[in-house]
Every structure is written in C-alpha cells, then in structure tokens.
Amino acid sequence: MLNGHPYVSERSRLAVEEAIRQLNYTPNSSAVHLKRGKTGVIAAIIKRIDHPFMSGLMQGIGEVALRKGYQIMVCQTRLQAREELRFLHLLQTKQVDGILLEDMQNDWKEVAPYAACGSLVLVNSYEEKANVPMVYVNNYNGARQALLHLVEKGHRAIAVCLAKRNNTLCTVQGPRWRAYQDVLAEAGIEINSRYVFENVGTSNVLSGKELFRAIREMSNKPTALFTGSDQVAAGFILEAQRHGVRIPEDIAVVGFDNQPIAELMDITTVYQPTREMGEHASEILFRLIEGSPVDPSVVEMPHQLVVRSTT
User: What's the domain of life for this entry (predicted)?
Assistant: First the structure.
C-alpha cells in the first residue's frame, strides 16, 4: 500500500492515507531496508573530520546519500592504518551496505579481503593494484604544476612541507613528494635536506606558523615554499606578516586544495573539486550497491593551478 502498489483501489488507498494521518504513523526505515536485505547505511572512512578538505568531500557524499534515502557513518582514522582496517570490518560484518575509503593508508593486499565482502570505492586515492572503482585527483600532476610555476618564477631554493616521505602507503602525499623530487632534478636543482620539512604538522594554520618559525632561524633561507595544504600556507603567511617578511618578495608560497581561506588570503594554490569528488564517488558506490554496471570505474577529476598574489 505505502509503496504505491498498482492493484490497490483508490478508495482503499485514501482510507489508509487518512488512517496514517490520524495515527501520525511514520514508516520504520530500518525495517524497510531490512526487508530489502540492506542496512540503509554507508560508511565514509576519512583521515580527519576537522580538515576543510573533508567538509567539501562530505557535502558531496551527503547530497547523494540524502537522495538515496541513506544514512552516513563517518569513521575517522587520524592516519592510523590499524583504525582503517577496523572500520573496513564493518563491510565484512554487513553492518553497512558500502564504504567510501578516502586516502587509503594500508597496502592494497591488506584492504583486498574486505573489498571482496561488499561494495567499496576509493576516493581521493589511486592504487594500481586495486580492483575497485576509484575517484581521485592526480596529485603528482597537481604538485608538478605548482612546482614548475615556482621554477619558472626563477626560484631555485624551494622548500617543501608535506607528510613523511617514507610513508609510501600514502596515496595523496606520496605522489606530491615524487613531483618535488622530479621537478627539482629536471631543473638541475639539488635537493637541500634543510628545505625538506617532514616533521612539521601538515594540516592546520598552527602548523604553518611553526613552519615559519623554523625557516626564520635558518641562515640561508629558501625563496619559495610549496605546502600540501592551504591551511599551512595561510599560517605561514600570517606569521610572516607579523614579523615583517614580505610575501612573495622575500618568500613565495603555494598551497593546495583551493580552500576558502586561500581565496580570502589570495594564496596561489592548486584547485581540486572536493565536493564533486564526493558526489561522483557516492554515485558509483550506490550503483555498486544496486548491482548496476559501473563504467568508467577509474575517474580522474580535474585540477588547476590558481595563481594569486603569493607568487
């Protein structure tokens, strides 16, 4: 009756609808999904809830889930590979109908057994060995574009602040490291280990301020800085201005993501469509859940260098 069955008479339908209004009846969504063999829940496994990148991503995921009548379970790993596997167990135990896995922290061989248990889509991740759909931005090309911009501006003392280089499992920061190494090598610039900041936080404004203080103590300072985050770039610039350091005359700064703070502070950065990435990945996940074909299964989203006043 409530599902609009064609063989129910108009008189019966009106009588049931009137009874529903009088009783203030609300269908039990869990029971509806259970009857269909579904939980009505998907999980989004992300690194950090408090990062602006995640706001855009979750907005896109949420819009699609809302249209599909699904709830979202948000699981925060804080870059802990063990936590990621613990959350993937939700798929194995059928507590969710599908999972969106952002920036995979484990090797694929650890994730593959969970992927065999249900619908899984990698988002903001690219893994050659994976046999599941992926939606991502090419972080190597994005970082390369930013670094080439600095080289073309005449900079040869270029500092970088990203996640640890030795974390080969990081599908976001790893390609950016490789781009830094490749661009400098092609330009005939030897990497100065003092310009490589891998022990400074890479996610917020305070990290950027800390980074500025570290560079300020150096005798031979870099003339340019590439960070993996607009938040870090913003913190660096704020602290630089407080100490009378001119941007970009004394040091040029490039961020990544094109977050609102980058536009507000006129920071050169690399744009990536976070909301659209979340939307596209979610649409693919629901096609998997519904048993519909997915083509293409690997989607590279566009990126663009946005040049502003900090370079």
Answer: Bacteria
- Domain co-membership, 233 together with 265: yes
**CA-CA distance, 32 to 121, in Å (whole number)?**
25
Rounded to the nearest 5 degrees, what angle is found at the Cα of 206, between the Cα atoms of 236 and 100?
105
How many Å apart are CA 238 and CA 235, to the nearest integer? 5
Query: Do 121 and 159 have their domain in common?
Result: no
Give me the CATH number covering residue 35: 3.40.50.2300
Q: Is 92 contained in some domain?
A: yes
Peptide bond into 296 cis (omega under 30): yes
Q: pLDDT higher for 30 or 140?
A: 140
> The dihedral of CA 190, 193, 195, 196: what is its sign?
positive
Residue-wise pLDDT tens digits, 94-124: 999 999 999 998 999 999 999 999 999 999 9
* Number of domain units in the chain: 3
Whole-number Å distance between alpha carbons of 68 and 66: 5
- The structure tokens listed for 73 are 């379970």
Query: Measured between alpha carbons, how far is 21 from 250 in angstroms, rounded to an integer?
Result: 70
Give the domain range for residue 17. 1-28
Query: Which one, of 169, 46, 173, 47, lies nearest residue 107 by Cα?
Result: 169
Residue 151 lies in a domain: yes
Q: Is residue 308 part of a domain?
A: no
